[in-house]
Amino acid sequence: MQPILDISDLRKSYGDGFEALKGINLQIEAGEIIALLGPNGAGKTTLISTICGITTATSGAVTVGGHDTIRDYRAARAMIGLVPQEINLEPFEKVINTVRFSRGLFGKSPDEAALERILRQLSLWDKRDSQIRALSGGMKRRVLIAKALSHEPRLLFLDEPTAGVDVELRKDMWEIVSALKEDGVTIVLTTHYIEEAEAIADRIGVIAKGELLLVEDKASLMARMGQKQLDVQLSAPLEAIPPLLAKYNLTLCDDNQTLTYSYDTRAERTGITKLLSDVSAAGLVLRDVLTRQSSLEDIFVGLVHEEKEPS
Ligand SMILES: Nc1ncnc2c1ncn2[C@@H]1O[C@H](COP(=O)(O)OP(=O)(O)OP(=O)(O)O)[C@@H](O)[C@H]1O
């Protein structure tokens, strides 16, 4: 099946020569939620702006639903909704007029039923005649989403939808995103929050210094997180792993005194009991044991760190 979004070798250098995107390749299937995680300045906003035609790419190509975002800009843009980071609403305008106006900007014919459906979906229907300035911060964010949905796009970009919002509002936002997915909208969101990516994304991309360092199914990332390491510290150094312990796939650390064993915390049997009894049967004396777990955060920090300080 043709991906709804296809980005190939996308590069962006700003006027001062700074390369904000260094050859991004990414395909997104219809109906997915993908979270792009990255530190400040990684290039997330630049990537979204380039796809949406707000910024011009230096080279590379992007298609949305098969439409090239440059040659076939209108058709591509009509399929995209963008929820920007900043709240940029007209304070004296009524909610419904704001959303109606956005729809008009895309040249879509008026459709009051569509507006009602969007406003109801975002729990804004009761507020349709309120002025924007009278709304809470959370409601204003909902209006931004309603505006982005006003022309019924198939692909929605949310640029840091929960930056600086409280925990309750963040959860609200996550529910909205899940409901949109149920409706068949494909969602790309950028975030600094690892737990946000964990909570709602199907796939996670890590971006740093203009490069996409990893794109992976959340499930397989979680499987990596399920891996734990057991460090068995011995009272004396070893020359090599004894043959009796060969079957455990152990690593002997640089100090020659620590054996590391990886296991899956979710497996029925971790093999730890048997390992420890075989360690003793091999005549080794334990000094200490400790366990470590790699989290998505470790994976993320490790990747971004490697990128910052290439060895
Ligand atoms: N108009 C511009 N001119 C020059 N450099 C720019 C411009 N816009 C962005 N940059 C630079 O490009 C890099 C990527 O910025 P971008 O806003 O895309 O990052 P981001 O990942 O969205 O960061 P944040 O999480 O802080 O929003 C940054 O180093 C930024 O300073």
UniProtKB/TrEMBL annotation:
InterPro entries cross-referenced by the UniProt entry: AAA+_ATPase, ABC_transporter-like_ATP-bd, ABC_transporter-like_CS, ABC_transporter_ATP-binding, P-loop_NTPase
* GO MF term set: ATP binding
Tell me which Pfam families the record gives.
ABC_tran (PF00005)
CDD domains documented for this protein: ABC_DR_subfamily_A
Keyword line? ATP-binding, Nucleotide-binding, Transport
Q: Where is the ABC transporter domain?
A: 5-234
Q: Which PANTHER family match?
A: ABC TRANSPORTER ATP-BINDING PROTEIN
Q: What is this protein called?
A: ABC transporter ATP-binding protein YadG
> What organism does this protein naturally occur in?
Roseobacter fucihabitans
- Taxonomic lineage from the root: Bacteria, Pseudomonadati, Pseudomonadota, Alphaproteobacteria, Rhodobacterales
